[in-house]
Design goal:
Number of helices: 2
CATH class: Alpha Beta
Strand order of the largest sheet: 2-3-1-4
Mean pLDDT: 94
Helix content: 25-40%
Distance between the termini: 8 Å
CATH architecture: 2-Layer Sandwich
Structural class: alpha+beta
Strand content: 25-35%
Number of domains: 1
Low-confidence stretches: none
Radius of gyration: 13 Å
């Protein structure tokens, strides 16, 4: 099962908007993507502009489907992020 650890930084003046957008994104993914097992965001306590996500999928195909859906679902984040996210894709053992 593929798992993803993603780290993204948001603009300092957009933290509250990012929290709202990420919560909405997570709810949408969990509701609309049956191949998603976990889609959870965390905010660093030592740097509130940094958010980390844990994602888990039933298969590589489900993860690929999420990638297709993310283009439209993640559009709300475009003006909030400060640089590209760091994405680490793993395989559960």
């Amino acid at each position: 099962m593929p798992s993803v650890f993603a780290t993204l930084r948001v603009k300092a003046d957009k933290v509250d908007a990012a929290k709202k957008a990420l919560a909405e994104l997570a709810a949408s993914v969990r509701a609309d993507e049956p191949g998603n097992l976990a889609y959870i965001f965390h905010q660093r306590k030592d740097d509130p502009t940094v958010f980390m996500a844990y994602e888990k999928y039933v298969s590589d195909e489900a993860f690929a489907e999420h990638g297709k859906n993310l283009a439209s679902k993640g559009a709300a984040l475009a003006g909030l992020v400060d640089g590209p996210p760091e994405i680490v894709i793993t395989e559960e053992i």
